[in-house]
Specification:
Elements lengths: L18 H5 L7 H24 L5 H26 L7 H14 L4 H14 L14 E2 H6 L2 H11 L1 H15 L11 H25 L2 H26 L14 H7 L3 E2 L3 H6 L6 H6 L8 H7 L1 H5 L2 E2 L1 H6 L5 E3 L4 E3 L1 H8 L1
Parallel strand pairs: 1-4, 2-3
Antiparallel strand pairs: 4-5
């Protein structure tokens, strides 16, 4: 993984905080472009949903295949919801928020609850005292070896790829999101969760009434679970890599954490399109108000950012074995590496 951010022409390397004024030039969304991006995402999603339903009378395997393909468009709808949460999709925040709430029913994610937890993720990313909300739980080496045997076993189970990317997405989107966990003392977030649940219940009721249980089993669940798995994977590789960035509060800086603790996931163009350029995550964390369709413009105009924190798909797969943050070497280690050095 290339973490170099030095320009090749010998020009001055900008500090992370110095990028803010430059990136502010890209923050304004285009109304027509935003509506266009929504149309070319929601349109195929609904069309494939209808096609999958029609195919139930032809072949259930065909239905399942169409549903799995449709997961890509559901993932993209979640990315649009993500931009709405940052106020980056439309100039009008009210329009963005209500679009986000509608999309939250499709993505099984109560919008206002998610927006709050995601805001906490951005404001505390890389801060060791702010882990646990809107992130993938990561223990330090010292915490791990000071923990009880049961706690270590549970943590190893949690970080197992079969749990994290297999069972985890289903638990997160089907169960955990049904309650405003972390915000249960605030009525606003109960309203968000319960309104999303009610809309989802009505939608599933209509589906079952007209089509029985098979559309739920062969369309709704495969599409939702596969999109959720892809989303969890993307979120994981955006911050979980060997030279990521964590600091104690006294040393932590939000701009340093954004720049050095977020990856630039280099994907083929079709995958970058389907994931709404979310792989350009270091730029997103530096300036979250930039619409996703303007992120490639940033890389085109600023080669230093284009070359920073680059991670290929092959390199990202190796990161699934890294689990513990070593404060001494400032590296994310595997359990085996930690045992060899400190066990």
């Amino acid at each position: 993984m290339d973490l170099s951010n030095s320009p090749q022409d010998g020009s001055k390397v900008l500090e992370p905080r110095e990028w803010i004024k430059i990136l502010a030039q890209y923050r304004e969304p285009s109304q027509w472009r935003s509506w266009f991006e929504l149309a070319i995402t929601a349109g195929p999603f609904l069309l494939l949903w209808g096609l999958a339903w029609w195919s139930l009378d032809v072949s259930r395997w065909l239905t399942l295949g169409i549903s799995m393909c449709n997961a890509a468009f559901l993932l993209r709808l979640f990315c649009i919801q993500h931009d709405c949460g940052h106020g980056a999709f439309f100039e009008n925040r009210t329009v963005s928020d209500w679009l986000g709430r509608v999309l939250g029913v499709l993505t099984l994610t109560p919008y206002d609850v998610w927006r709050r937890s995601h805001s906490m993720h951005h404001s505390g990313s890389g801060n060791l005292d702010h882990r646990g909300m809107g992130d993938v739980h990561t223990m330090t080496v010292d915490e791990y070896y000071a923990a009880s045997g049961l706690t270590r076993w549970l943590y190893r189970l949690y970080r197992n790829p079969l749990v994290l990317f297999g069972l985890g997405p289903g638990y997160l989107f089907l169960l955990q999101n049904r309650l405003p966990l972390g915000f249960t003392n605030q009525a606003k977030y109960w309203v968000s969760a319960m309104a999303t649940n009610a809309a989802l219940f009505v939608a599933l009721g209509v589906i079952v009434y007209f089509g029985g249980i098979m559309p739920v089993l062969l369309i709704f669940l495969p599409t939702s679970l596969l999109a959720g798995t892809a989303g969890v994977w993307l979120f994981y590789v955006q911050h979980q890599f060997e030279t990521t960035h964590w600091d104690t509060p006294e040393d932590w800086n939000i701009h340093e954490a954004a720049m050095h603790g977020s990856s630039h996931y280099v994907l083929p163009k079709p995958l970058a399109w389907l994931s709404a350029n979310i792989g350009i995550h270091h730029v997103h964390h530096l300036y979250a108000r930039i619409p996703f369709y303007r992120l490639p413009d940033v890389l085109r105009d600023h080669g230093e950012l284009a070359e920073a924190n680059r991670m290929t798909i092959r390199e990202s797969l190796a990161n699934a074995r890294l689990h513990l943050w070593d404060q001494k070497t400032r590296r994310l280690l595997s359990f085996r590496q930690a045992d060899e050095q400190y066990g």
